[in-house]
Amino acid sequence: MSALLQAFGQFKEGQIAAAEGDFAKDVALRNQKALERQAKAEREAASLEESRISRKGRFATASAIAQAGKKGGQLKNASLSALTDIVAQFIIDRNLALRSGLLKSRELIQRGKIIAAQGRFAKVIGRQKRTAKFIQAGGTLAVGAFAQISSIQNPVAPKGV
What we know:
Helix content is 92%, strand content 0%. Helix 1 runs antiparallel to helix 2 (77-153). It is mainly α.
């Protein structure tokens, strides 16, 4: 009877190990999806920042052209050089904003893939533990049955008779 209870306990341990693996995988996949949503938000934020910088650059360029027009009517070499520098700086800032958002997004996606892989691995480990516990339970039942059969075939005489 104790072998049966022990085997039942081992069987339940195997089921619990498999359930833990499934749960770990589910949590990992949910975390991956959350990181993908965060990556999308990073890309959108970078796009908005790029738009803001572009708009600011257009205003700065228009302002520089208006200032040059006020002073002399034509763009001279110095004014043209300053205008080129302003435009170049805004292009650099805009590209930097886009690139940083893209890099953050890629990092989040990669982290999500790693977390999902860890979850899938945890599920496999849980299944392996379950299989091992099932085999262990089968062995316990076999040993218990053998002990039961042995006690029936070789009854022990009571002491003192």
